[in-house]
Design brief:
CATH architecture of the largest domain: 3-Layer(aba) Sandwich
Helix content: 25-40%
CATH superfamily of the largest domain: Thiolase/Chalcone synthase
Oligomer: single chain
Radius of gyration: 18 Å
Largest sheet: 5 strands, mixed
Structural class: alpha/beta
CATH class of the largest domain: Alpha Beta
Bound molecules: oxa(dethia)-CoA
Number of helices: 10
Number of strands: 13
Length: about 325
């Protein structure tokens, strides 16, 4: 017998306010056509004044707990992926823990920027497989609108706010690739590429929050190079092949990156869950947001092989293979 982490429920939350490309084009030198052609993005959700990452995370968590049919008292651990925490400390995870009324267990944040949800999923899976937790709430939540330079057209049109969450639950399998749950995880990072994607502030450097800075075309090249290879690596580790994938749920940074990755895996586009058009890049939130959408509309069903993949600042990248 092998202990696995199954997805017992998922949920999401998007702020009410939708900002279209045309609205941005009124303020900066850009156009709807440029943004759609280069990224696939049509609109994004932006958090209201005063709405914090923990507020988004709490709403997504409540949705996921309801979907799983359990209460906060059943949760042993919260692992929250974010690059836009409410405060430098304590972790946003502990703020969500308190808001859920959860008084036991442990809660902490994971920082891997856009790969954060894959990292957090891997961390949670390890705790479950070691028997240290039975039910783990894994959250990806971001308010990237707070770290954007709204005068920099090369970055501000790309991102949005949102949150998604899953409940991972321990369950015994037979150790084969037909088991339900997480079958493999692969994580990578390469700190040499700091200058290609970073925030130019922080408590120990500038004592300020800073703004996101990115060399987009360079990041693009690394993303298309790394994403297909990490998916293949995770599929190998799970004893599966690209042909076995029912749904690719990628980090939603750019439609062209997603399509190129699928082409490299020789997958047809109709097996990709694509939300970048209406969510834009929500960093660590993009995968659980897309996953929840595909589960709720009936695309992802029991027995499906679902592959999560992401790449982000650090650089960090990773993939997880899950049998639904
Ligand atoms: O989630 C973390 C990982 N992040 C990513 O994966 C992002 C990866 N990068 C990308 O998605 C793309 O590189 C971008 C969408 C950021 C940019 O697309 P691109 O096709 O690489 O365009 P580019 O940066 O090469 O810019 C082409 C032109 C430039 O003008 P010139 O120099 O050719 O005259 C830019 O100044 O487009 C110009 N440009 C814009 N024009 C209108 C850049 N941003 C804009 C804009 N509106 N918003």
């Amino acid at each position: 017998m092998v202990r696995r982490s199954i997805v017992a429920g998922c949920g999401s939350y998007l702020p009410e306010r939708i900002v279209t490309n045309d609205e941005l084009a009124k303020k900066i030198d850009t156009s709807h056509d440029w943004i759609v052609q280069r990224t696939g993005i049509h609109s994004r959700h932006i958090a209201a004044d005063g709405q914090k990452t923990s507020d988004l995370a709490l709403a997504a968590s409540q949705d996921a707990l309801q979907d799983a049919g359990i209460g906060a008292e059943d949760i042993d651990m919260i692992v929250l992926a974010t690059a836009t925490p409410d405060e430098t400390f304590p972790s946003t995870a502990t703020t969500v823990q308190a808001a859920l009324g959860m008084t036991r267990g442990a809660a902490f944040d994971v920082q891997a920027v856009c790969s954060g949800f894959v990292y957090a999923t891997n961390v949670a899976d390890n705790f479950i497989r070691l028997g240290q937790a039975d039910n783990v709430l894994v959250i990806g939540a971001e308010t990237f609108s707070r770290i954007l330079d709204w005068n920099d057209r090369t970055t501000c049109v790309l991102f949005g706010d949102g949150a998604g969450a899953v409940v991972l639950q321990g369950q015994d399998g037979d150790g084969s690739s037909t088991d339900r749950g997480i079958l493999s995880n692969c994580l990578h990072s390469d700190g040499q590429h700091h200058d290609l994607l970073y925030v130019d502030g922080g408590p120990s450097s500038t004592q300020s929050v800073g703004f996101l800075r990115m060399e987009g075309p360079e990041v693009f090249k690394h993303a298309v190079r790394n994403l297909a290879s990490v998916c293949s690596e995770a599929l190998d580790a799970a004893g599966l092949a690209a042909d076995d994938i029912n749904w690719l749920v990628p980090h939603q940074a750019n439609q062209r990156i997603i399509s190129t990755t699928a082409r490299k895996l020789k997958m047809s586009e109709d097996k990709i869950v694509m939300t970048v058009d209406h969510h834009a890049n929500t960093s660590a939130a993009s995968i659980p947001l897309a996953l929840t959408e595909a589960v709720r509309d009936g695309r992802v069903t029991a027995g499906d092989v679902v592959v999560l993949e992401a790449m982000g600042g650090g650089f960090t990248w990773g993939a997880s293979v899950i049998r639904w």
